């Protein structure tokens, strides 16, 4: 998303003249072995809401929200576009739209946010948030527009009507119709996911050309918690990635990515614990969250797959030491990062759960053992036999069989872009296995073995360009046909082989001509099998803990004592105060005690009946790591508008005033268990606090990390504040410390 607050835009966005550069050639073996985030550093200081596609030329293209690219530039680019041969070194190639280019229904000052680019049919479609339209006098009556182009770099032409028009909100103003993301299902239907905090995330079906919404939208993720939806299909499940918390709170930004999955594009999407994303107590399994290193506010993701089959997540983040592009409290500086996306036990997680990377890491595989872009008319790496094949305009066409001089060996991923320009069937032969598009089906057939065949959508056009990817691991073959390589398969065929795949790769076109491009053979990636272990919880430190069995332990100290908080019957009972700690008010009571030295885990069990659905802003109770009223990390179950969330809020002094943001950690029940795991960074001496929550005290969801300077001494305590209407009492069973 862009720079938002409820009811308006923080900064006006201006245009910049279109710029272009020549294409860089793709050279086999040119990619680096390692890379370091942010990958956008070579061309931009900020590149928010990024998405990445692979173009017909085999290069990669990234698109970002309308912002200035560099500090001091002051003028915003209108969907800046970058190109890369290796996903690591990027070059700015221009803006998608000229300064005076906008759809007819867009207001003159409209900005373009959060683009999503897909291949539909024989052209590319860009979906983009238009922040201001001519529908009303409201300057934030957002809508989703679409533009089409023959190439990933344009020229882009806007459609004459919005895909999703501005939607009046029941609470006034217009619902946030932002953050579009397109998805094509196995039945060929096109869908668009869109929306944000005011209105939630919805999905609507699109016309076949992708330019109009049809039917009735469905809510798939609750309002006031999620935005930036992105859906992909993996192993038969539909995964909805969504960002949560505030995108743009500078050094206190706790933006992160969560996920739910479903058996259909319209949901219902549920998390690992079976909790729906469209409920008041909304679920969400963490995919990506800050881990205590340089990066905070890790969110608004795109998705891609490298030539080895490894999935990657593209997203933006904030350097906590440099959170603003220019002056404090202006545009948040959000460069593009890239990290490995692993699938463990059916759920996606970044770097096996380790989170965003700061140090050098193995780079994506973007060149291969066989990596044919057909840039030369000579077919020196191929054997045509008696068949006729030729190269023109960077594409291969022919009839019959064309065999590579490179043999397959071991677990591999093979892929090619193909069109059936006259052929009855076309595809790939991997040693003894043929994988073809034929007679409206995707078929895999092993010589002297078995076969698998699945139908293609009724509206499938074989003359359109599609990507065919085939992976073989441990004699299990999986073939996928997709329009864009973005988890949008039109068909998936799976076949158990009787013997390993060995021998040459052959391109096949029967009964007429087929067209091929971007043919590659790469060793198949090695999947991560186990997630990084969460913080361990060791023996109880009884001298530091309090079970509230016999009054309040003398070790406790109050900041603004609340005389209504009492201890009896083994619990601390604290009526929620009509006060807060956020900002300059600092009127809430805080009950504190010293913490042990070194690594420890603090835990409490708190019961707070916040009900559901109704607005009870911002009643809450939970744990706090506290230095003073302007530097604390607060882990609470809280009512945020109609939702109930576990918010891990953080306040710190910055540029002369306190700044507050939050990170979302799990889903609360009426009784919720909360943990803060403390660790001292041996290199910096910083205090790192990682948060977790549980609905039963057994199964825990671990979230993000907030840090405190080395020269501070955080204490641990309890809070119960945020509003006294209706009256409600927080009941704490204990505060325990574990080594």
UniProtKB/TrEMBL annotation:
Tell me which UniProt keywords the record has, alphabetically: Glycosidase, Hydrolase, Signal
Quick one: which pathway? Glycan metabolism; L-arabinan degradation
The record's listing under Pfam families reads:
Glyco_hydro_43
Q: Tell me the InterPro entries matching this sequence.
A: ConA-like_dom_sf, GH43_arabinanases, Glyco_hydro_43, Glyco_hydro_beta-prop_sf
Q: Which residues form a coiled coil?
A: none
Q: Residues of the signal sequence?
A: 1-28
Report the family membership: Belongs to the glycosyl hydrolase 43 family.
**UniProt protein name:** Family 43 glycosylhydrolase
């Amino acid at each position: 998303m862009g720079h938002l607050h409820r009811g308006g835009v923080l900064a006006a966005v201006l245009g910049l003249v279109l710029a272009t550069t020549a294409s860089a050639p793709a050279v086999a073996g040119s990619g680096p072995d390692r890379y370091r985030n942010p990958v956008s550093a070579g061309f931009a200081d900020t590149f928010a809401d990024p998405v990445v596609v692979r173009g017909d030329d085999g290069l990669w293209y990234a698109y970002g929200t309308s912002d200035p690219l560099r500090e001091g530039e002051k003028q915003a680019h209108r969907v800046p576009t970058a190109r890369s041969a290796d996903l690591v070194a990027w070059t700015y190639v221009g803006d998608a739209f000229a300064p005076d280019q906008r759809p007819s229904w867009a207001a003159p000052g409209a900005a373009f946010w959060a683009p999503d680019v897909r291949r539909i049919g024989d052209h590319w479609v860009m979906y983009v948030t238009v922040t201001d339209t001519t529908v009303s006098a409201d300057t934030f009556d957002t809508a989703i527009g679409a533009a089409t182009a023959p190439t990933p770099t344009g020229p882009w032409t806007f459609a004459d009507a919005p895909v999703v028009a501005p939607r009046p909100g029941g609470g006034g103003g217009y619902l946030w119709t932002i953050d579009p993301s397109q998805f094509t299902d196995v039945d060929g239907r096109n869908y668009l996911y869109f929306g944000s905090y005011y209105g939630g995330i919805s999905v609507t079906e699109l016309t076949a050309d992708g330019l109009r919404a049809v039917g009735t939208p469905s809510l798939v993720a609750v309002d006031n918690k999620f935005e930036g939806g992105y859906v992909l299909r993996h192993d038969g499940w539909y995964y909805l990635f969504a960002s949560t918390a505030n995108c743009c709170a500078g050094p206190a930004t706790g933006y992160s990515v969560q996920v739910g999955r479903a058996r259909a594009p319209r949901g219902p999407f549920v998390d690992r614990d079976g909790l729906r994303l469209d409920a008041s107590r909304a679920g969400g399994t963490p995919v990506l969250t800050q881990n205590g290193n340089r990066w905070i506010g890790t969110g608004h993701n795109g998705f891609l797959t490298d030539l080895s089959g490894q999935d990657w997540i593209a997203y933006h983040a904030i350097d906590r030491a440099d959170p603003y592009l220019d002056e404090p409290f202006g545009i948040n500086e959000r460069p593009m990062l890239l990290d490995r996306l692993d699938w463990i036990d059916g759920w996606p997680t970044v770097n096996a759960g380790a989170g965003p990377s700061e140090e050098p890491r193995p780079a994506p595989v973007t060149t291969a053992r066989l990596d044919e872009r057909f840039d030369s008319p000579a077919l020196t790496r191929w054997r045509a036999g008696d068949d006729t094949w030729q190269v023109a305009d960077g594409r291969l066409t022919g009839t019959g069989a064309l065999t590579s001089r490179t043999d397959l060996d071991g677990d591999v991923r093979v892929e090619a872009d193909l069109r059936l320009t006259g052929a009855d069937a076309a595809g790939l032969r991997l040693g003894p296995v043929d994988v073809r598009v034929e007679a409206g089906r995707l078929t895999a057939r092993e010589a002297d073995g078995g076969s698998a065949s699945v139908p293609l959508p009724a509206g499938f056009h074989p003359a359109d360009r599609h990507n065919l990817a085939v992976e073989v691991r441990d004699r299990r073959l999986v073939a996928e046909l997709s329009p864009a390589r973005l988890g949008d398969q039109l068909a998936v065929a799976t076949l158990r082989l009787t013997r390993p795949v060995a021998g040459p790769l052959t391109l096949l076109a029967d009964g007429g001509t087929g067209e091929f491009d971007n043919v590659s053979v790469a060793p198949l990636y090695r999947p991560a099998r186990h997630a990084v272990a969460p913080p361990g919880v060791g023996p109880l430190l009884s001298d530091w803990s309090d079970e509230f069995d016999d009054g309040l332990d003398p070790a406790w100290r109050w900041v603004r004592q609340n005389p209504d908080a009492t201890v009896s019957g083994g619990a601390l009972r604290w009526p929620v105060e009509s006060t807060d700690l956020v900002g300059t008010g600092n009127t809430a009571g805080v009950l504190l005690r010293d913490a042990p030295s070194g690594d420890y885990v603090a835990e409490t069990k708190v019961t707070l009946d916040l009900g559901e659905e109704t607005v009870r802003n911002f009643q809450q109770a939970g744990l706090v790591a506290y230095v003073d009223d302007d530097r604390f990390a607060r882990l609470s179950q809280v009512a945020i508008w109609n939702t109930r969330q576990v918010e891990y809020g953080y306040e710190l002094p910055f540029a002369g005033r306190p700044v507050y943001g939050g990170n979302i950690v799990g889903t609360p029940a009426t009784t919720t268990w909360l943990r803060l795991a403390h660790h001292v960074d041996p290199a910096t001496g910083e205090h790192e606090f990682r948060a977790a929550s549980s609905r039963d005290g057994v199964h825990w969801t671990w979230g993000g990390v907030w840090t405190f300077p080395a020269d501070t001494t955080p204490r641990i305590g309890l809070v119960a504040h945020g509003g006294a209407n209706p009256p409600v009492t927080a009941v704490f069973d204990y505060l325990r410390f574990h080594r």
